[in-house]
Design a protein that fits this description.
Structural class: alpha/beta
Domain Gfo/Idh/MocA-like oxidoreductase N-terminal: 5-132
Order of helices and strands: EHEHEHEHEHEHEEHEEEEEEEEEHHE
Number of helices: 9
Organism: Asterophora parasitica
Strand order of the largest sheet: 17-16-15-14-7-13-12-9-18
Domain Gal80p-like C-terminal: 140-294
CATH topology of the largest domain: Dihydrodipicolinate Reductase, domain 2
Strand content: 25-35%
CATH class of the largest domain: Alpha Beta
InterPro entries: Gal80p-like_C, Gfo/Idh/MocA-like_OxRdtase_N, Gfo/Idh/MocA_oxidoreduct, NAD(P)-bd_dom_sf
GO molecular function: nucleotide binding
CATH superfamily of the largest domain: Dihydrodipicolinate Reductase, domain 2
CATH architecture of the largest domain: 2-Layer Sandwich
Number of domains: 2
Length: 373
């Protein structure tokens, strides 16, 4: 039997994405073993480590503060970073310098420059790295890619997508959860553009198999003020007029290097009223079309939601589409465990995606078409 990959998770506490998705998906793959975690303070690290030690049946080392501590842990082979985007760079670099393989949640830094820096340092140190772009491992997305590559719709000529992040989600709209208000700041690295638009961009280019050569964008802040609410949904006194600096609407068009034309619209902050489209994505080829759609709330987050797939008007049944939040991540861990033969999103993919997102941003701000190399 092969030796398990020993994992340390930065940002693993009692609640949050690391505890609800990353840790459960890792623990579901026998090729991995949770051996360490790191949080911002000693008490939370100790309590969480004790809980996981009891759960997994082996010691889980507790670290806190700067990631130099967990990076130096001899019981760790792979460090998983799941903190806010602005903390990615400082969390990842000690792991790279220690020669540890890394997994970094999307968007890999607060901006394009940080993404490039992380990729450069990892390349220089020769560490292997994966990125949390698990939408590539969706059963429906894999099937759509397979249909295109098999020639079922002929050469792809165009693609159109419309997406919604509804008001009730509590981010990027007129009502914002207290825990998410940082995402309303344009330089947070956690904006509508950074997170959901970025995830969708990766899936779009993965399925079609081509990156953008030019981008034209219209962006807008339709909700310049937001009411901050607590966990119970009640407005927080003194925070009912949060100033929003990050756009909540994007409409971008572009030409892919393959020659196909793409048109993508993202809206945030609108209520999920009856009939309002949550997610629709059409891919038109010379010989037919593919459609992915869903009106389930947050359906635009394909990285953890599975839409319905249609080929030339007929529904395509897809196996393995249950529990995509854990399933997609599990598939990524399985691929990473294969080593260099694995198929997963890399830091190079992150840089390419970030380059396109930066072009989307600049085009919206400057009102001009951006040509990419």
């Amino acid at each position: 039997m092969s030796v398990p990959i020993r994992v340390g998770i930065v940002g693993l506490s009692a609640a949050g994405w690391a505890s609800s998705a990353l840790a459960p998906s890792i623990l579901s793959v026998p090729k991995y073993k949770l051996t360490a975690l790191s949080t911002s303070n000693a008490s939370s690290a100790s309590a969480t480590a004790q809980a996981y030690t009891a759960q997994v049946g082996n010691p889980v080392n507790a670290h806190h503060g700067p990631t130099t501590s967990i990076a130096a842990d001899p019981d760790v082979d792979l460090i998983v970073v799941s903190v806010r985007a602005k903390g990615h760079l400082s969390a990842v670099l000690p792991a790279i310098e220690a020669g540890k393989d890394i997994f970094v949640e999307w968007p890999v830094g607060a901006n394009l420059e940080e993404t490039k820096e992380i990729a450069r340092r990892a390349r220089e140190k020769g560490v292997r790295a994966a990125v949390g772009l698990q939408g590539r491992h969706s059963a429906v997305i894999r099937k759509a890619k397979e249909l295109i590559e098999s020639g079922k719709i002929g050469k792809v000529l165009s693609t159109t997508s419309i997406n919604l992040v509804p008001e009730e989600f509590g981010i990027w709209g007129p009502v914002v959860n207290e825990r998410s208000k940082f995402a309303a700041e344009v330089n947070s690295g956690s904006t509508l553009l950074d997170i959901p638009v970025g995830h969708h961009l990766d899936i779009l280019t993965f399925v079609i198999g081509s990156y953008f050569s030019s981008i034209s964008t219209t962006s807008a802040i339709l909700f310049p003020k937001a009411t901050v609410i607590d966990a119970a949904g009640a407005p927080i006194a003194g925070e009912d007029q949060l100033t929003v600096t990050a756009p909540d609407h994007y409409a971008y068009t572009g030409v892919l290097k393959s020659g196909a034309v793409a048109s993508v619209v993202w809206r945030a902050g609108l209520k999920s009223t009856p009939g309002r489209r949550q997610f629709l994505w059409e891919i038109d080829g010379e010989e037919g079309s593919i459609k992915l759609e869903s009106d389930e709330p947050l359906a635009a987050f394909i990285n953890f939601k599975e839409p319905t797939l249609w080929l030339n008007g007929e529904k395509v049944e897809v196996d393995g589409a249950e529990n995509p939040t854990i399933g997609n991540l599990r598939a990524e861990w399985e691929e990473f465990a294969k080593g260099e033969q694995g198929n997963y999103a890399t830091l190079e993919d992150a840089v390419r995606n970030r380059t396109v997102l930066d072009a989307i941003r600049r085009s919206g701000e400057e009102g001009k078409r951006i040509v990419l190399e």
